[in-house]
Amino acid sequence: MNSPDTLPDPDLQPNADVVIFDGQCRFCIGGVKQLSKFDCCGGRLSYISLHDPRVAERYPSLSHDILMQEMYVVRADGRAYGGSAAVRYLTRRLPLLWWATPILHFPGTAWLWRWLYHQVAKRRYRMAGKQCPDDACSVHLR
Fold first, then answer.
1. Among 9, 18, 25, 106, which is 20 to 30 Å from 71 by CA?
2. What pLDDT does 141 receive?
3. What domain count does the chain have?
4. Is residue 139 included in any domain, yes or no?
5. Phi, psi (rounded to 5 degrees) for 49
6. Contact, 72 vs 58, CB < 8 A?
7. Is residue 10 domain-resident?
8. Are 94 and 109 in contact (CB under 8 A)?
């Protein structure tokens, strides 16, 4: 499996939105690699694992526990979106995902997308296998 280090880094793209993901989760790594393909023109998104020490330094309002629950996208202006709201934001941000915008933004369905996102997020280690040193992710396999 390729390392998440092959994704665009926030230090190299300071004006890009930052996707904060679980870099110890194979499902999550695969997801952000797929997401990076939708940044067709490049430069709109950069990626960083929630386990990277820079995350705690740069985003003190986003605790480790919060980030373990859902992916976050932090815009260049500092506004942050988590979970299904992040996915919804990305459908508006990336032209190749615009086709999903009407589906994810259909009035009255935000609760459904939140619920679905959380169902997948809490099962992510079971879905694609875990990749954590010293079995540190076992708490999420319940």
1. 106
2. 44
3. 1
4. no
5. -75, 140
6. no
7. yes
8. no
3-state SS string over the chain?
CCCHHHCCCCCCCCCCEEEEECCCEHHHHHHHHHHHHCCCCCCCEEEEECCCHHHHHHCCCCCHHHHHHCCEEECCCCCEEECHHHHHHHHHHCHHHHHHHHHHCCCCCHHHHHHHHHHHHHCHHHHHCECCHHHCCHHHHC
**Is 17 inside a domain boundary?**
yes
79: in domain: yes
The model carries a pTM of 0.79
Domain that holds residue 13: 4-130
Within 10 angstroms of residue 66's Cβ, the number of other Cβ atoms is 16
**Quick one: tokens of 84?**
């299904």
CB 38 within 8 A of CB 73: no
